[in-house]
Amino acid sequence: GGPVNSYNDGGLYFGPPDAPRLVIRAGDPAPGIPGMNIELIPGQYALSQSTGKIAFNAFYLVAPQGAVAGQGIWGGDAFNPHLLAKTGDPVPEMPGSHFGEFVTWSVNDAGEVAFASQLDTVQDSVLCVSRADGSLRVVARTGQQVPGMPPGIGYWRVADGAFLDNSGHLAFMAFHNDQSRPPSERRAIFYGPIEDPQLLVFIGQDCPGLASGDTFADLGGPFMSVSGSVMFRGIARGADITPANNFGVWAGGPGDVHLVIRAGDQAPGLPAGVIVNSLSGSFLSSAGRLVVRGQIAGPGIDLIDGNLIPDALWAEDATGALQLVARAGIPMEVEPGNFLTPLGFTLAGERSYAPSQSRQFYNSSGRLLFSVDFIEDGSAALFTADITPVCRADYNGSDGVTVADIFDFLNGWFAGDEQADFNGGGLSVSDIFDFLNAWFAGCA
């Protein structure tokens, strides 16, 4: 109610697209802070997967339109948020330290919120989790010993991304203070229970799935689904690493990190020799399945309009294998008898701020929702695709397991075809035995 002005023209809404409701608006009383009004909602918010929980941070000022007094973070039910912490509040377990400004990272279905804060000591930061009972727990703080690193190496800055799942686990990025490494090489990713997160990967560590001596030069992410799946991006360096093959996507937990896809690799689902030229996007759905977008190059792959490298879109099936969903340049039927040529692909919700946990573009039943931009008329359309596991024993893709698959596999193996690397460990005799085991098991 009342006229709109520069003090009350911003707000946060929640709900279905056809019936959004106002959660909070600039100029409203700041919940839990008497005498203060909301001044600015900077757009940092998080949504739970399915329970209507929300978290956000905002600046507040002396009511009605006085000076800015601080910043707070709120969480809980979307239409009844409560104050979690505000500027000047003491930090638990850190006597003499007080919260400064906040960054909201994620909220799970129980209403637990992960957030970071720059403290009043300026150089110090802290990662906290607000538990469902309202208590605050410090997960990591500047100076604290980093788990999995030599004694004396502590956290330097936390956190650069922090995600909660629905079972009390957390994944986050932080910087450590190892003075033997330049500041740009002090990133590390952590994962584990809120009470005891462990080191997952760090810059300088060997890259899983690559040659010995290939190490991480940079890290991006992490991203974690509410089911606990973790994904991160990395740039590798080493004797056999070039700008054409240094970027990849990895996933997994402590002791089980594996390479999902890398630039320069054989492109999944495409003829031998067609490679992933580059990766332009990797996304983790709320169901914990990966979707990857990249450009492809190789035999039979033509540039679009003479100068554009074509896109391709892949999605993980229920077994964790990447399946080709669509590729640019190949006409798609948009309605009976009407074929248009795709230019590029976008996932539903990809451009939203909300963390990857709340993205609903790929569900647990294997249905993917994506949009396609077309070349001919500049139009776009939404498509769905059902991603089902491929029977790898059907080596030649004839929709059946026959003796011909054995001969075709052996021909590929002797020719050094990457498709014959059946177990992903590099071409070896074990691939033959693993393929034969799969062939005798047949397809469901």
Overview of this protein structure:
Helices cover 6% and strands 42% of the residues. The chain is built from 2 helices and 28 strands. The strands form 8 sheets. Strands 3, 4, 5, 6 and 7 form a 5-stranded antiparallel sheet that branches. Strands 8-9-10-11 form a 4-stranded antiparallel sheet, with no helix packed on it. The radius of gyration is 25 Å and the shape is globular. The model is unreliable at 353-358 (pLDDT under 50). With 444 residues, the chain is mainly β.
Question: Could you give a short description of this structure?
Answer:
The chain is mainly β.
Strand % is: 35-45%
Note the total helix count.
2
Give the SSE string: EEEEEEEEEEEEEEEEEEEEEEEEEEEEHH
Largest sheet: 5 strands, antiparallel
Overall geometry comes to: globular
Q: Look at the structure and give the mean pLDDT.
A: 88
Oligomer: single chain
As a percent range, the share of helical residues equals under 10%
The count of DSSP E runs of length 2 or more, i.e. the number of strands, is 28
Radius of gyration: 25 Å
Secondary-structure class: mainly beta
Low-confidence stretches: 353-358
What is the terminal-to-terminal distance?
Answer: 61 Å
